[in-house]
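Input record (Table S2, row 535):
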Amino acid sequence: MVKTVAVVGAGASGLAAIKCCLDEGLEPVCFERSGDIGGLWQYKDNPEDGRASIYKSVIINTSKEMMCFSDFPIPDDFPNYMHNSKIMDYFRMYAQNFSLMKYIQFKTTVCSIKKSLDFPTSGQWIVTTEKEGKQDTSVFDSILICSGHHMFPNLPLASFPGIETFKGLYMHSRDYKSPEGFQNKRVLVIGIGNSGGDIAVELSRIAKQVFLSTRRGAWIVNRVSANGYPLDTLKTRRYVYLLNKVLPSSLINYIAENKVNQRFDHDNYGLLPTHRFNGQHPTVNDDLPNRIISGQVKIKCNVKEFKENDVVFEDGTEEKDIDMVIFATGYSFSFPFCDESVLVVTENKVSLYKYIFPPHLEQNTLAVIGLVQPIGAIMPISELQARLATRVFKGLVRLPAAQSMVHDVAQKRQKMESRYVRSQRHTIQVDYVEYMDEVASLLGAKPRLFLLFMTDPKFALKVFFGPCTPYQYRLMGPGKWSGARAAIMTQYDRIIKPTKTRSLDNPSRDKSFLNVIQVCTILILLAALLYQIIC
Ligand code: FAD
Ligand code: NAP
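Output record (NAP complex):
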């Protein structure tokens, strides 16, 4: 009998989940609270209850070749860093191409997910949904939770004494939509994650003055990197990942800090943190240094207290007549619809094997998709997680015993805590290549590089030294896609096409295949290997 799967949410993760169910011959029913697909990327002028909300100008900070679904490249003429409306265009193309829409029940909220009475043997779930005030209950064989993790604002008002007497306006970044209404105001933005950076820059063009408060500073990286290539296409590579593994972390941090300081000295710009480069989720911002050097954004330390109209900072300085405050202080996540015996979240910490499977279930018939904060893009990660989960549901992949899964969860948490500064934003961090390889290994879809080097050496070099694009996880194993090799061979064309919009007569300059860095990498890796063999 065909197994049924309830998919909660039709954002990027939900769409990929539906497609993976279909690929595995499962029967998905997707429940989406709102009236459209796209989740967070579906822009609305007003925030909606129960769905993440973005501001009108959001441009993604992961580039198109790194964020696409692995068997559906983003059209070559789409920009590398897309506006949210363009991302929606891509999701619609994906949904249409794989005929996903008919599996989605819109304006339908999942109210509860509970184990069936015979769960230990059947593994089934009872799902209660609500549409237009009417409740409905159905039984499903499996569940894919794709409800996102940017829904509930973290508004830590208790940490800001005097906020109750402050006479200006304050809001969370979730409620910020556009600069309308901020003209000629003195605005304070609190928090220097990607929301805080983006909003401070945007407002600085029309506000009288913007102050950006950060309690620990940040290293700022640029979307546009060496030779104008998207940053993630240069950093998310197998050889870079290997270097990160074999070289001391202090050296890696030193190189990265040196590089970003060449663009602007973080000390002189008041941004220098005490933690190292790799100790924090990266803040990507192309304009912040320009706004600081032109005086329109002033960096401040943590807020000590609010007064009726003024704000006092921990260094004793005071800014008068602040009209508006935006708390860009991040998000909390939870699963209010899911039985507490299945998923418990405390301060953004949840026990999930590979961030997907609750380890204690008698039957592995529930998976959480997209609950990671990657250094890289979420979409291909969600897709790979869903590929694995659907194979687990079918019994084609067996998960380890509960004890081993719990051990793995604890190890990951310990590793994360030793690398990142303590913050509730650093509880689900993953590095793209490492994590994708880990999930792909369980699935059986990790590219076997040795085999590639033996059979197709030139291509293998591209896989090892080039961007680790999602297509790499469709080269072999279950879900293999015949277009994967061609997609990798043409990825540079799709990166260049949207920027090179003026045709030039002069022939392209020769770009040698192996550059100096790559040759050095080979030497370092060989030396590391030799060292391991000898010692
Ligand atoms: P969401 O997009 O949040 O979708 C979840 C869906 O589930 C929603 O449609 C919601 O309505 C539905 N839902 C929730 N609860 C229920 C329920 N009980 N019943 C029915 N439906 C429900 N990631 C990147 O990779 N690159 C980026 O550059 C990037 N930029 C970002 C910018 C901003 C401002 C923010 C806040 C996040 C950004 N992210 C980025 C992360 C973002 O989470 C992912 O891009 C992506 O949206 C995750 O998709 P998702 O489907 O998991 O979650
Ligand atoms: P975030 O990454 O969690 O950043 C929150 C910021 O608020 C951090 O600087 C944090 O500082 C600070 N903060 C939290 N609590 C605080 C407190 N009590 N007092 C002072 N400061 C506090 O949240 P976000 O910026 O909204 O980003 C959420 C997600 O969306 C991220 O994945 C991000 O990459 C993504 N995003 C992407 C884009 C884009 O693509 N253009 C734009 C916006 C957001 P600490 O570090 O000290 O905790």
